[in-house]
Structure formats: C-alpha cells, structure tokens
C-alpha cells in the first residue's frame, strides 16, 4: 500500500520522484567541460537575524553570490568570460542548527565578451576563493545596509535594538573585518559525477529518515556528523526533546513560493537553451537528439516508480477522502 504523497518540499519522503524528474531535465544542460563546486556561507550574526527575514536575506545570498562569481569571472585578470551557475540553498548544519549557505555548480569556463569564443579556465582551478570572499563580504554588507534603510528587515527579542540605523551600523562594523567562508572544492570527475552530486543536494531537506534512530519518551534521537572531529568519531548520535527537535526542523521551512534552486548567467532560464547551443557549437559538440513530439505523445514516463524494483506503478483506483468516523454521542453522566 502506498499512501498519497503530501508533496510538501520539506517532507523527507516526498522528494525522491521530484529530484529524479529535475535531474533528467538537467542532463541536457551538461557540457563536456570541468565543473566546479563553490560554497558561499553567511556568518553566524547574519544567520541569527535571517530567522526573521528569510525571504530578504536568502534572496540576497543568492543574488550576491551569483553576482560575485560573474564579476570576478568577467575580470580579464582572472578568467575574462561570461559564466553560468546553478545555486542551491541549504539552511542547516548536520545537527539541524541554522547555517545558511549556497552550493554553486559552475562550468569551468565561459563565453568571451563578444560571444564568439569559449574561454576555459586553468585545469583544476576556477577562481581565487580569497578574492571571491572579499567581494562577497563587501557587496552583501552594502546590500544589507540598503534593505535596512528601506525598512525591509524585522527584528525581535534581543535584536530589537537593531531597528535603529546607528545601532545597526555599529553591529555591522565587526562583520566588515572578519573572514567570510567561501571555498571551492576540487572539480567533479566528469558530467556524470555532477548529476550524482546534484541528486544528493538539490531536493535534500534538513533531515532524512535514514538519520532518525529512535523516537521515545526521551525525545528524538538522530545521527549527525561533527565536522570538527576526525575519522570515525565524526559520526555521532544526538537526542533532542521533541519540542526542540521540531523547533530546529521548522527553522528550515522556506517561505511560500521561494525558489531554492536558481540559475544565473549563461544558465538563466530565459537564455539557457540558446547559450548552451552556442557553447556546444564553439566546442564542436553535436547536440543530443531528443525524442520527437510524436514519440512523446505515444510514450510518457510514469509518474510513480517502485523504489524496490524500479518498475512503473500503475494507478488502478483512487480512493476519495471520506468523512472521519465519529463515535456516538455520550449520554449524560457516562464516562
């Protein structure tokens, strides 16, 4: 028996089929070049006020990270090319703490300013992370100051005083000199590895069912990874009181309609198809031949796949929701 999916994007059980469909659509976007993984992380003080301003601050995180990548890539001292990027928002740490950051998947190169040449980056190296970090810090703080001036930020509890412009300016001052974490991992081992990585990250939620160990009178026990430890001691278990577990999980519920996967530059939705066709032409790569419209009408991919055998599941009946069964009314004096 398979119960109806709630289809909520924060549900750990309802994202597998959505992730698979998204990945199949992205296969046509892959290029025969190196791909790099870049991560932009917000410092803890800004993460604290992001709890109350998710739409504004997460939106800034996307826009400033993408703008930083494109600005440094267009600089002739670095790459001198127009690039594209896919950014995925994550807001959690392994222990369900609030840790907003974006994962960027970036092709290793871009189009020249005139759009007539493909400029590849150096093998194994994309852009200098220190330069990215400095520019990301400066532009994010400038944008944060601007949205505060417009009155778009809300403050509660111990942060209520930050509504005052002078207090907010003093609060921002230390953030202009501390290090902001931006790092780049080694390039992926080919386009297939990119898809395998995306399948783990695009539709992930704050916790998966596999990490849950027990739910009992003590609370909820789950596995987590301590990145400060080394070796096997990294993997630990934690037990939280049920209310605290739910509080931590709900920290990562996004505002309605907020997109947590976004494409920028050459990969932006309105221009992606034309740009990819031009890049493939410059790289002398034959475009993949997809199914014709007639074939698509004849054969459509099933929406439900058995997770055990991989065979398509055929819907034989849909049960309409009925009224809940109610107990008979109790007589007066009856307990």
TrEMBL record:
Residues covered by the Transposase IS801/IS1294 domain: 84-269
Domain Transposase zinc-binding: 2-42
Transmembrane segments: none
GO biological process, one term: DNA transposition
InterPro entries the UniProt entry points to: transpos_IS91, Transposase_32, Zn_Tnp
GO molecular function: DNA binding; transposase activity
PANTHER family assigned to the protein according to its UniProt record, in alphabetical order: ISSOD25 TRANSPOSASE TNPA_ISSOD25, TRANSPOSASE
Name by which UniProt lists this protein: Transposase
């Amino acid at each position: 028996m398979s119960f109806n999916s709630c289809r909520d994007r924060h549900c750990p059980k309802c994202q597998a089929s959505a992730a698979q469909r998204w990945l199949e659509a992205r296969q046509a976007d892959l290029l025969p070049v190196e791909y790099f993984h870049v991560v932009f992380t917000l410092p803890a003080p800004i993460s604290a006020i992001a709890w109350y301003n998710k739409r504004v601050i997460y939106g800034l995180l996307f826009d400033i990270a993408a703008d930083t990548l494109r600005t440094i890539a267009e600089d002739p001292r670095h790459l001198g090319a127009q690039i594209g990027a896919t950014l995925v928002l994550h807001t959690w740490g392994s222990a369900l703490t609030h840790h907003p950051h974006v994962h960027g998947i970036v092709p290793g190169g871009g189009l020249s300013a005139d759009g007539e040449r493909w400029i590849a980056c150096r093998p194994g190296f994309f852009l200098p992370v220190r330069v990215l970090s400095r520019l990301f810090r400066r532009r994010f703080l400038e944008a944060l100051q601007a949205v505060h001036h417009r009155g778009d930020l809300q403050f509660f509890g111990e942060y209520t005083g930050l509504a005052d412009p002078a207090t907010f300016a003093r609060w921002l001052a230390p953030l202009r000199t501390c290090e902001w974490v931006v790092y780049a991992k080694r390039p992926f081992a080919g386009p297939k590895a990119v898809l395998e990585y995306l399948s783990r990250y695009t539709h992930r939620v704050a916790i998966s069912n596999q990490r849950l160990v027990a739910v009992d009178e003590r609370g909820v026990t789950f596995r987590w990874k301590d990145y400060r430890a080394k070796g096997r001691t990294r993997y630990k278990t934690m037990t939280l009181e049920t209310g605290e577990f739910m509080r931590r999980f709900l920290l990562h519920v996004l505002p309605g309609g907020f997109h947590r996967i976004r494409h920028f530059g050459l990969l932006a939705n309105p221009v992606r198809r034309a740009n990819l066709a031009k890049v493939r032409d410059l790289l002398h790569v034959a475009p993949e031949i997809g199914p014709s419209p007639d074939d698509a009408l004849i054969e459509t991919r099933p929406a439900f796949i058995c997770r055990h055998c991989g065979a398509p599941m055929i819907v034989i009946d849909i049960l309409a929701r009925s009224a809940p069964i109610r107990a008979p009314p109790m007589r007066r004096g009856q307990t």
